[in-house]
Structure formats: C-alpha cells, structure tokens
Design goal:
2 domains; AB_hydrolase_fold; transmembrane helix; hydrolase activity; hydrolase; Alpha/beta fold hydrolase; 54% helix; 9-stranded mixed beta sheet; 11% strand; globular; Rossmann fold; alpha/beta
Length: 491
C-alpha cells in the first residue's frame, strides 16, 4: 500500500527524536562501568564530588530500569552508584539461599548492598550516603541502613519506592521517604503505616517528625508498580528528599523520560510494518472450526498443569525457567496435535521471515530497551537457558499463530487463546504455590510480549504465514524470558 513508506519515515523520525531526547539526559555526565567483586556497577556523576546515592533495583530488574532516578540525581549534582543484584542483569553470580527466609536470600542481598555502600564510601570526596531502591530492594536497603546504623556509620537518607518491609520501626530508618504509585493501594498503605509509626495522625504527602526521625509518603499520580520508575513527579520527590537530607540545592527540571522511551520503542515497532510487507507472501491460514478451536483451547489448559506441576523438579539455574520450558512445550504440542498441525521443517521463505522478525525483535528493539529501559542482553550463562527455552517457546508460539490464523482470526478468538495460556500458568501456581508462585510474575512479561512482539508477529503472519510468525515469536519469547528472570542456585 502507498502509505507504508510514509509509515516507515514517520517511525524513523519519531525514533530519532526520542533518541536525541534520551541521550540529552546523559549530556554532561561521566558514566562509567565497574565491578565490585562479581557485582557490576555503574557510576553516574557530573564531577567527582557531592554525596553518593546507591541505587538498587527490584526483583527481575536491573540497573537500566532505574535510570530515570540515576540520571536525574546525577544531573542534580549527586554521584550515583547503581548495581545489579546477584542473579540479575549482568551479574554472573546467581542468587542463592532460602527465598522465604530473612536469614536466607535476603541476608545475602543485604550483605551485597552493604558491600556497595562500602565501595561508595571508598571513593574520593564526600562520603555521605543515601539509599534508593524499588520493590524487593526496599526491604534490602532498609535492612542495610539499619545494619549500617548499628555499625556506627549511618546513611543520611533512604528513599523506598513501592515499599514493603517488615524491618521499619519507629526509630529506623531515621530519614525515610516512601514513594508509591497511585494504583498501588496495598503498598500505599504500607508506606502510610511506616509514617504512622512516627505520628499516628500522618497523612499521605506530608512529612512527620519525632526527634531525629523524619518520615514522608509521596503518591505518584496515574502510575503502577513499574510506571512509578518513570514518573517525573516521583523522581522529583526523591530528589527533593535527598536535597533536604544533604542540604543540597538542585537546579534541574523534570524530564518526561518514560514517554520518550515509549516513543522510541513505539517507533521501532511501527518501523517494522513496512519491512514485514516486503517479506515473501504465503497463502492465508484457513479458518478453524469452532468445535476444534474450543478443544484446542480447553484441553491444554486442563491437562498441562496437571501433568507437569505435581512432578516438577528444578533442574535449571533460573527461577521457574525450567517449568516454563516444560509447560510451554506440552501446551503447544497439545494444541498442535488437536489442530492436526504436525511440526514440519520450514521452507526458505518461512525461515527468512522468522529470522527477520527475530532479528528486529531481539537486536533492534532489544538493544534500544537495553540501553534505555531494562536489561535485555544476556550474560554467557544465560545463552544455554535461552536455547533450552526455545524448546518450549517455539511450539507454543507456532500453535498460537495457527489458532489465531496468523492474526486474522476474530478478536475474541485471539483474546481467548492468550487468556488460556495465562489460565494454565495460574493453575500451575495454585497446584504448587511453594515452588511455582514465581510463575505468576511472568504474566506481565507475557502481556507486554503479546502487545509488542505479538503485533509485529501478526504483521509477519498476515504476510508470510503462521509458521513464520510462530517461529520468530518463539525465538523472541525465549530470549525475553531468558534475560528477565534471576539466575538462582539454591544452597
């Protein structure tokens, strides 16, 4: 169609403008990568002076996802030390210990955080320390600050984003700001409870004080658990809290960095549309009779978790990756069998189309995400895990493509197919809550995957056929899952 070149030009312009804006947030900063033992760290600074803020990410996060805070604080005159927890991001050391025990994994992560604090204090210049963390890291940094206080070397301020921690007391941490998204009702209550330990009449948005203890809560409007990491008002609140604690004056403006990230990623997705139109054409997929469609949806949901969950044993060094591989493989195989779509070797055209989708979804989209939003590049230890995940992701996505007629099926069918996959994963978590609860955390990854890569896969499927789309999406999904979940080696 004639407008496809215009779509490509628009996508390129949007992407270029977004890159200019995102790179502008780094202008004037010295950004350097280091290692503290096995822990990779990034130091952001305008100059080698000013207080240091140690930044920690949440579960399945990385240094990159905390950049809105890291860059803003560095531009404001702080030195910022962001790091990847064990098992996360580029950290090659797996998490270990009992994840359900304070003396297990939590203690190990607290010790790692305190090593980062010690490294920050060893840097030349101002040795005053602030801590900032999100979600899982809030409990870690609060416990680390309490341990530092007990050791006679207190941190000056703590900012806990989306906080949940049983370690907060009426006396510690002494200077604590809790930031929550407006849509995080449970975590908003946890933040308010922390403030009310100091003053029972505390309300959101106001600071309370008792002697040296200062507490405040801030609610970022219109965001949830991930959006709060990109909220300009939340970033500003954190900066203001550190300014007060360090008697520091910042002269920087709010930056809508999150919107520019969305613009860049959206431009990359949109830019794939005219590329997909140039792929070799294939015949449209035939409609699937309603009866067979219903069987292909319901039978795998009922059978897959019952056959795998009760007998599952961890055998891969990544949380629940091994279960996902087995679950997706059986789920997809059952669907293909019911549809009577037996696996076959793709022809050259289908293989080429699948490769184009995989390269765009992993290299182009993924590298942009890795630089500006979240870790998407694997350490060497993760490559075999990605390869193993392909054994489950590829058949599952090929079956998905056939069931949705490569994106041509009615909307209700496409929605039902994806909801069925989610339902089977939820059933597995219910059957084995002690071992498979972490499966529930993968659901947002699937949602984002279907919204982004699924759209690109639909364009490929409508042009090059279901097999091409399914193969490409399977490779992309295996990569996304393989880089997202923490490496874990229980002791």
């Amino acid at each position: 169609m004639r407008f496809r070149p215009l779509v490509g030009i628009l996508a390129l312009l949007v992407s270029l403008v977004a890159v200019v804006q995102l790179e502008g947030a780094r202008a004037g900063l010295q950004i350097s990568d280091h290692s503290v033992g096995t822990t990779p760290v990034t130091l952001y600074q305008r100059a080698p002076e000013g207080p240091i803020v140690v930044v920690a990410h949440g579960f399945a996060g990385s240094r990159q996802i905390m950049q809105s805070y890291s860059l803003a604080l560095a531009q404001a005159g702080y030195r910022v030390l962001a790091f990847d927890f064990e098992g996360h991001g580029r950290n090659t050391q797996p998490m270990s210990g009992d994840v359900t025990s304070i003396d297990g994994t939590t203690a190990l992560l607290v010790a790692e955080t305190r090593r980062m604090i010690g490294y920050a204090r060893s840097l030349p210049g101002d040795t005053r320390i602030g801590l900032l963390g999100h979600s899982m890291a809030t409990d870690i940094i609060i416990r680390a600050s309490i341990d530092e206080q007990a050791a006679g070397q207190p941190v000056q301020a703590v900012v806990a984003i989306s906080m949940f921690s049983g370690a907060v007391t009426a006396d510690a941490p002494q200077r604590l700001l809790v930031i929550s998204g407006a849509w995080e009702s449970f975590l908003r209550k946890a933040g308010l409870d922390a403030a009310r330990l100091v003053d029972p009449a505390a309300v959101e948005g106001a600071m309370v004080q008792s002697g040296p203890v200062r507490r405040a809560t801030f609610v970022a409007p219109g965001v949830e658990h991930v959006g709060v990491l990109f909220s300009p008002s939340a970033v500003q609140a954190a900066q203001d809290w550190f300014d007060m604690a360090f008697d520091h004056e910042s002269r920087t403006k709010r930056s809508p960095r999150g919107w520019w990230i969305l613009a860049l990623l959206g431009g990359i997705v949109l830019g794939f549309y005219p590329i997909a139109a140039k792929l070799p054409a294939a015949a449209p997929e035939p409609a699937i009779p309603t009866g067979r469609f219903v069987l292909a949806v319901l039978i795998p949901v009922a059978i897959t978790p019952l056959l795998i969950a009760p007998f599952y044993r961890n055998f891969m060094p990544v949380l629940v990756a091994d279960y996902l591989m087995l679950h997706l493989a059986l789920f997809g195989a059952l669907q293909l069998a019911i549809l009577w779509r037996w696996p076959r070797w793709p022809g050259a055209s289908a293989a080429l189309s699948a490769l184009v989708l995989a390269v765009w979804g992993i290299a182009v989209f993924g590298l942009a995400l890795d630089r500006y939003g979240a870790n998407f590049w694997p350490t060497p230890q993760r490559l075999p895990i990605i390869a193993a995940l392909c054994l489950g992701c590829v058949p599952c996505m090929v079956a998905d493509s056939y069931l949705t007629q490569a994106g041509r099926a009615a909307l209700w069918r496409r929605v039902v197919v994806r909801l069925a996959l989610f339902a089977a994963l939820i059933i597995a978590a219910v059957l084995r809550p002690d071992d498979l609860t972490f499966v529930l955390i993968v659901l947002p990854v699937f949602v984002l995957f279907f919204l982004v890569h699924g759209l690109m896969g639909r364009w490929v499927g409508q042009r090059a056929g279901a097999l091409a789309a399914g193969l490409g999406l399977g490779l992309c999904l295996a990569w996304a899952l393989g880089v997202s979940f923490p490496l874990f080696a229980p002791e």
